[in-house]
Amino acid sequence: MIGATLSRWTLSYFACAIAFLLGAEALMALGFGYPGAAQRSPETLVLVHCVAIGWLSLLMCGALFQFVPVLVAKPIHSNALPLPALLSIVAGLVALIAGFLQLAGDLPPNSTTFVVASALLGIGFVLVLWNLGRTLATAWPLNISARFVAVGLASVAATVTFGIVFTLGFAGLAQTPFLIDLRAHGLPLHIIAGLGGWLTFTAIGVSHRLLAMFMLSPELDGASTRWTFHLGTLALAVVVVGGVVAIAFGGGVDAVLAIAGVAGLASLALYARDVLHLYRKRVRPVIELNSRMAAVALEHLAAAVLLTVACAALGLLDRFAGALVFLVGFGWLSGLGLAKLYKIVAFVTWLECYGPVLGKTPTPRVQDLVVEPRARKWFWLYFAAVDVATLCLVAELPLAFRAAAAVLWIATAAIAVELVRTRRLVNVNAALRLPTGARQPRLLFTFVAS
Ligand code: HEM
Is pTM beyond 0.85 here? Predict the structure, then answer.
């Protein structure tokens, strides 16, 4: 990755993302939204989108601006566009939250809020898609990791389109018979395209490269990886296209989801096989904290999948949907996100600060930018709090859930402090910290030669 272009605004994405995660966890600890309020209540919609757009989507966008050029060995189409995209998505999310708070009666009603939210979120994600899409287009035909990302980007386009239809529906627009049906029956398509396609499928694609890179494992491009891609893409296409067609013809989406579920399960089973191979075949004997915690996040994905299959078989999916979405959102996606952030911030900071002076003067290693023993306890506390919170949702114990959410907030805040210390080079021995020619990195953006 030496010589890779650094993404100028990726750290701003990360900083906004962490702020939204801490905000959502604080709201949960205060009893705002589910499980104190109903699953489809406006308060729960605020929480869900602080996490889904504010934390997970901004984290993913920031990571993709840095890693798509690495995946395809081509420079990013524009290193300037990510900033207006970020501002548009954040402003759109604030408007969406304001709209939901109006629905809840906490703010005076004003239907333009939802129209403004739709426009800003639409523009923001289109700028992201344009920039990453143009970058991928320069590397045709795409390698396997990049193909996962391409399908992930198509999935976020679908997620945002469904989301905008729902949002315009709250503004009293989107009233054609088809759009009314889509609003009535399309929510599972929105959720699966967002959590399954955009966030999970993209993470699967990027993790193939990142796990291999950070653990020095042989990269996989064999039949199981290709079939993970084909079956996953098929499952997502069946959900999005099959779902919309079924709704257009006045049918339900249950059959479509069942078919997609089989293909999706097969894809995840092959991915599990690949991940075990990557960990077993690694050259680096000692697993770094980020890879170790990524393994814990992967175990949460496996648990969520098995529990979802069991609930579906026992007809308990509706009852435990909240707990399952929480486990996917906080155990798998957020757990993986925090684990990878711990490595990416150190790596990007090392590259930016010491890359220009490498070989000319003594420099620290990437590992010297972090203190793993100190961070490890906070990651374990994070995952323990996720597990207890999930059990509280299953057992319907809202007060205990709030206590677990408070511990989640403490662990996340401590991990965020570790990231800031890394970025500020606080952990590096003073003698090695800023050799001649090296520059103190800025917290929120990266110096990039234009
Ligand atoms: C990017 C990833 C996204 C994910 C993972 C996501 C996830 C979800 C989930 C889980 C729900 C159901 C919440 C519940 O019932 O408690 C939901 C509902 C909703 N989402 Fe999203 N969302 C995303 C993006 C968006 C965007 C960009 C918009 C707006 C432009 C949006 C607008 C909505 C609306 C209005 C609802 C409520 C639908 C209803 O209850 O009828 N979402 N979303």
Answer: yes
- Cβ–Cβ < 8 Å for 382, 407: no
pLDDT, mean of residues 413-435: 96
For 230-266, what is each residue's pLDDT tens digit? 999 999 999 999 999 999 999 899 999 999 999 999 9
Condensed to tens digits (0 to 9), the pLDDT of residues 24-53 reads 999 999 999 999 999 999 999 999 999 999
Cα of 40 vs centre of ligand 1, distance in Å, is: 10
| Nearest protein Cα to ligand 1, atom 26 | 163
Under a CB-based contact definition with an 8 Å cutoff, are residues 173 and 99 in contact? no
- Measured distance CA(276)–CA(281) in Å, rounded: 8
DSSP state letter for 349: H
Ligand 1 atom 43: the closest Cα is on which residue? 191
Which residue lies with its CA nearest to atom 2 of ligand 1?
194
- The residue type of 268 is L
CB-based contact 100:143 (threshold 8 Å): no
In ligand 1, the atom with minimum distance to the C-alpha of 195 is: 5
Report cis status (omega within 30 of 0) of the bond before 362: no
Smallest Cα–Cα separation from 445: which of 12, 43, 46, 53?
12
Q: Closest Cα to atom 20, ligand 1: which residue?
A: 163
Average pLDDT, stretch 424-441? 93
CA distances from 32 to 96, 337, 387, 400 (A): 17, 24, 20, 14
Domain boundaries, the chain: 319-450
Pocket lining for ligand 1, CB < 6 angstroms: 39-40, 44-45, 48-49, 52-53, 57, 96, 118, 121, 156, 159-160, 163-164, 166-167, 183, 187, 190-191, 194-195, 198, 325
Nearest CA to ligand 1 atom 38: 166
Tens digits of residue pLDDT in 64-73: 999 999 999 9
What spacing in Å lies between the alpha carbon of 151 and ligand 1's midpoint? 20
